[in-house]
Write a structure and sequence with these properties.
The complex is a heterodimer of chains A (131) and B (179). Chain A is mostly helical and 131 residues long. Chain A contains 4 helices and no strands. The N and C termini of chain B lie far apart (71 Å). The chains are: A mainly alpha (131), B mainly alpha (179).
């Protein structure tokens, strides 16, 4: 019975994390802030629920399957979040005024300079060929 | 006594999960861009996973564990695919509240590449730039022009160099005037 209550408390904490993510999703005004909020129940909430399940069913099959699920989440959630943030940066879905520092802008500068050099080189090359 | 505590915890957790799903659905409906909707969908999916896990823990249903795996994989595939193909044509809800988004248009993508054609190029790059004008062309330079042709990491939906040359006739003039 104590284990049941512990499991219920863990599930309740997972639900609280999920609600916090939803509230942050509405309250925050930026894509990156919303991404920050939404990552909490995807990892920590699921870990809490998985611990609750493992308390209820302490068998090898269940625990290993839960380990698979959690490790899968831990691997895939950063990848998905990185993709979303990258797309958001490229389509300017972020507030510049909320950024303290934009370290990606310097890389963008270098990349643009490199691209312009490449364009000029290719343009002169084709001109020589044509003319 | 412990029964009451247990039942109250379960009911409270269910109510919280339902509330989080409803609030995330609100964000999905109202989100200004499709990426916000994608994040809302992720939160809904995480809530579903938490609720399903709680159901599995409190009623003896360990046969639902593969459903959790499938849901985790679904969230990953959905996020990656949507954010992969959102870059080129993204439709904002008109009147969106997030600042500095309204000036985004399709012609902005080609602006710096077209702007450098009449100008001497590198000097125009190194001079001061308010970092809003050039950020759009971030990634095609990394992938499309590098000599590595095989990695498909950013080449798919982006306007490549050839596309930019095709489009550059009309849009370049406008963007030059605008800047």
């Amino acid at each position: 019975m104590v284990l049941d209550i512990i499991s219920a408390v863990l599930i309740f904490l997972g639900a609280v994390l999920s609600l916090a993510a939803a509230v942050g999703l509405v309250r925050f005004g930026d894509l990156l802030s919303r991404m920050h909020a939404s990552a909490k129940p995807q990892v920590l909430g699921l870990v809490l629920v998985a611990v609750a399940i493992a308390i209820q069913f302490p068998t090898w099959a269940t625990v290993t399957t839960l380990a698979i699920i959690i490790s899968f989440q831990l691997v895939t959630i950063p990848v998905a979040t990185h993709m979303v943030g990258r797309a958001g940066y490229r389509t300017k879905h972020l507030r510049r005024s909320m950024l303290y520092r934009d370290e990606l802008a310097e890389a963008v500068d270098r990349a643009e300079a490199r691209e312009i050099a490449w364009e000029r080189q290719r343009g002169t090359g084709t001109d020589h060929h044509d003319g | 006594m412990s029964e009451i505590v247990l039942h109250s915890l379960v009911v409270a957790g269910s109510v919280l999960l339902a509330a989080s799903v409803v609030i995330a659905l609100f964000r999905i409906v109202r989100g200004p861009s499709i990426l916000d909707r994608m994040i809302g969908t992720d939160v809904v999916l995480a809530s579903i996973m938490c609720g399903l896990g709680g159901y599995m823990a409190l009623s003896d249903r360990t046969d639902l564990l593969p459903v959790l795996i499938v849901l985790a994989m679904l969230g990953f595939v959905g996020s990656v695919s949507v954010s992969r193909y959102v870059s080129k044509s993204d439709s904002m809800t008109p009147g969106a509240e997030a600042g500095a988004l309204s000036e985004f248009s399709a012609s902005d993508w080609h602006m710096p590449r077209d702007a450098d054609e009449p100008s001497p190029g590198s000097t125009s790059v190194s001079q001061a730039r308010p970092s809003d004008d050039v950020t759009e062309i971030a990634d095609p330079t990394y992938d499309a022009h590098a000599d590595s042709g095989g990695e498909g990491e950013g080449t798919g939906p982006d306007p490549g160099p050839d596309d930019a040359e095709h489009v550059s006739d009309g849009d370049g003039q406008e963007s030059n005037r605008g800047s």
